[in-house]
Amino acid sequence: MSGLITRRGLLAGISALGAGAALSACGAKTGGDTSKAAGAKADTSGDTVRVGLLNSLSGTMAISEVTVHNALLLAVKEINAAGGVLGKQLKPVSQDGASDWPTFAEKAQALITDSKVVATFGCWTSASRKAVKPVFERNKSLLFYPVQYEGLEQSPYIFYSGATTNQQIVPALDYLKKQGFTKLYLVGSDYVFPRTANKIIKTYAKANGMEVLGEDYAPLGSTEFATIVNKVRSAGADAVFNTLNGDSNVAFFKEYKSAGLTAKKLPVLSVSIAEEEVKSIGTQYLEGQLTAWNYYQTTPGAANEKFVAAYQAAYGKDKPTSDPMEAAYISVHLWKAMVEKAGSFDVEKVKAASDGIEFDAPEGKVTVDGATQHVHKTARIGKVSASGLIEEVWNSGGPIKPDPYLKGYDWAADL
Q1: 367-392: per-residue pLDDT in tens?
Q2: What are phi and psi of 40, to 5 degrees?
Q3: CA-to-CA distance for 107 and 313, rounded, in angstroms?
Q4: 8 Å CB contact between 63 and 3
Q5: 0.85 cut: is pTM over it?
């Protein structure tokens, strides 16, 4: 594999939008020998325990995932310096998903079966999460997933430390509506997250007096956006909702500016562009554009000041922090708190101990909801500044209880 998305991998991601049986089949095919997997047990016998780090360190998603991997390593280092977990030091074992979904499943199985990890932290795209989900469920091993996603999912063996739909996409739509942006154009990468997110967006729009004037997808990793940008420019929309992922955003925003489109003329609200991506794309292409997250490097508070200082001391003064990095970082600390409350590394005991676990996170206080295995999080809308950082322009005023299936919204009843 070259590290770029293969056709097989892309189809695996897209198929995740369909039947659960297809997903399970994909996971079973790429996850290795299931009879061997069933006997896989975490090794807690020594003075150290292994934790798995599963990220794209190569390929089109490396632009986003390398920094998440770094944040996970920082959390492990901090925990070890403070005495470890239940008196044991953590030994990180890294695997490269290579931006390819079947590879993620294979590497997940290797972490569980060969490395005998006590928990795994990682994945970014929903396609990668869908690919590994049956692997973790089959092995009854824990995955901590750190990135905002499209919701409509729960797994007994996944904890979601990033935002679900009612903590990011719905607040973003509420914000656009309040600002008078009611004619939207949807642009996304062609896999499960953007397609499901846009299904939710269209359902919201229909119930809230908004119009979706166009919807286009590009293959993940695509660098050709002239046609899509021309369609956006001529559609008559007053805002673009962007669910592109990875380095496709570089090409999209360069084409956007080349076409004469600016944040003032036609603002773009992105849900997968954070500080690291701003730096990679270039501030000159993004200044004034909007983002929806739960954390920014500029989020006030002593816990965030400490996090930013620690990250930059480890990786460089010019290195920004971002929402997925922060969600990955807190996921390790949340797992530690669960294990210590349980008094055991046993997966079922850790799950039973999860409800109500709190952490003074860089984004503010977060609390684990044991029923959904998601986290209460504050929604934040930001604007890219000339400095390359993202400045908050709105927040929800406090943490929002996770509602992955949008049960609290009448307009979402048919989703």
Answers
A1: 999 999 999 999 999 999 999 999 99
A2: -70, 130
A3: 30
A4: no
A5: yes
